[in-house]
Amino acid sequence: AWVKVMIDHDPAGQFKLGTLQSEQAQRILRDLNLPVHDYQTFLLLEAGHVYTKSTAVLRVIRQLSRWWPLYYVGVLVPAPLRDVVYDFVARHRYRWMGRAGTCRVPTQAERERFVGS
């Protein structure tokens, strides 16, 4: 769901997307001395810095279109508290929002936004 939001609200295509299991992502994780088997989080690599969980989400939200940047006000909440909420939502998201029965088929332009494609 988050990838769909990023694709739909990043018309300039400034964000590249990928899975942490990909070869390229694994290489980046090793180079940055980050765990290579923690696939349960969201990472943002921006200008040589790595942001995780709620901080990564907020930094992305700040640059999306429409009303999404309004949520950046969440940065006022201390990161440890935000991350508790992030982990709670991540743990329960399928129970609350369900799972999609099908996956979106990306357009060629969308496929080009995925690292390793």
The coarse overall form would be globular
- Give the strand order of the largest sheet, numbering strands 1, 2, ... along the chain: 1-2
What are the low-pLDDT stretches, counting only 5+ consecutive residues below 50? none
Approximately how much helix is present in the residues? 40-55%
List the secondary-structure elements in sequence, H or E.
HHEEHHH
Rg: 15 Å
The pLDDT mean sits at 83
Q: What's the number of structural domains? A: 1
Give the strand tally: 2
Query: Which class best fits the helix and strand makeup?
Result: mainly alpha
Question: How many strands, what sense, and barrel or not for the largest sheet?
Answer: 2 strands, antiparallel
* β-sheet strand percentage: 5-15%
Instruction: Tell me the number of helical segments per DSSP (H or I, 4 or more residues long).
Output: 5
Distance between the termini: 20 Å
Characterise the protein shown here.
With 117 residues, the chain is mainly alpha-helical. The protein has one domain. Helices cover 41% and strands 7% of the residues. It is built from 5 helices and 2 strands. The chain has helices spanning 2-8, 23-31, 53-61, 79-97, 108-111; strands spanning 43-46, 49-52. It has a two-stranded antiparallel ribbon. A hairpin with a 2-residue loop joins β1 and β2 (49-52). The protein starts with a helix and ends in a 6-residue tail after the last helix. The model has no long low-confidence stretch (mean pLDDT 83).
